[in-house]
User: Fold these one by one.
Assistant:
Number 1:
Amino acid sequence: MVTTVRQIMTPHPECIRSHHTVMEAARRMAVLGVGALPICGTDDRLLGMITDRDIAVKVIAHGKDPKATWAGDLAQGAAITIGPDDPIELLPAIMVANRISRLPVVDSGRLIGIVARCDVARAMPEMRVADLFDALPVA
């Protein structure tokens, strides 16, 4: 039986460094086939997340140059996170309340995993999953 976030997270997620460009982040997302990357500082601390939507709406739509915009510039405020030993039952409420489809897993300030909406779907009872998918934006 799955009971903790650690059991369903994707471990060792790749970060984009805050001093890398948005273009580098977009290329990395394309290579990895993902729609979001954690933004980490040089000390490996999580600063935030960058999504393909952030790139489209906050950079391209505003006429900014993705080759001259830092990924760290898109990290706004403290990232919403969860701990590896937290119960999975917390995930739907956190994701819905914050309208996020991916949740970084942090242990002692270090990023150790990512939980995506699809991870929750595989681990949670059907009723909760339906509610989660209905409440979150398409990722």
Number 2:
Amino acid sequence: MSPQLRLLYVGPMSYGGTCLQRFNVLSELGCDVTPLDVTGITKYCSRLLNSLQFRTCWSPRIGVLNRQFTKMVGQVRPDVVWVDKGIYLWPESLRQAREKSRLVHYNPDDPFGFARRGWRLFLKSIPEYDLHFVARDVNIEEFKKAGARKVVRHHWAFDRSLHHPREVTPETRQRFGGPIGFIGDWEVQREKPLRFLADHGHQVRIWGTNWERRLEHPHRLEHPQLKIEGQPLWGENYAQALCSFDINLNFLRRVNRDLSTTRSIEIPACGAFMLAERTDEHLALFEEGKEAEFFSSDDEMLDKTRYYLSHPDIRRRIGVEGLARCHRSGYSNHDRLGWMLQKMMEL
């Protein structure tokens, strides 16, 4: 890769988000990167206005973003415009940008999955990009049918500066951790197994959004073994929490048709113990029983939870082996993005 490669990087670069992590690593890899942070441009103070904007893909702020985007393409004149989940860019804005630069889109989510809201503009824009990086094998043909010029599968990664083992003090464990934890948004397929563990006497602590608003049975919120924090964790707090749980549960996101998630890499990269849903992708990433653990049913999850809580030495050894696998197999952002830059250069 030429160190002179000039990028305009467009995305929501809030603290703790993977978009900002990718931006930083692309700079470290030698690219001349100019940021366009869409967060401040498109975000309203009101939750209602943000929801309406997301559902309709229309608002005055979307117009402001597109004018700013077109202006910066003209000013920066980048070799490549990298767009990270560009749900608010107009096809005509991208068409103008393609007259000056190559366009690359990175998508962590699934526009053809079960969460269809918010994708209207992006689906119209798929043919405008020179290259799409997608997170699921099933997306490859779907993007091609939607008019994509070139589609390449990307894989989840960890951030070297953030996801690494930490010494956990009793104060940190009390603040963030415990015996069993899950960090992520609410889905009914996540709520049920977590309640299953709590019903069988295990203390479970949950960090993430939407839990109080969307629980199937809100009257059961005060389960004595279930502690729902009602807020997300970002950046350093997120990594501290992963290191502060004896067992980190990892449930897939069904609306995105996931077979692995960012947590699938971030948990082992922190040297923490992961107990995740068994899929072909998880089995390819980590050796079961040596580098991570997996389950296919609530009963198997319960059995393995009981076993590993009572065998801390084995649990810690698996965490160490999972960490080694992350580095040995090149699961970092530096490795993954270096590979993606090569794909971009092939354009």
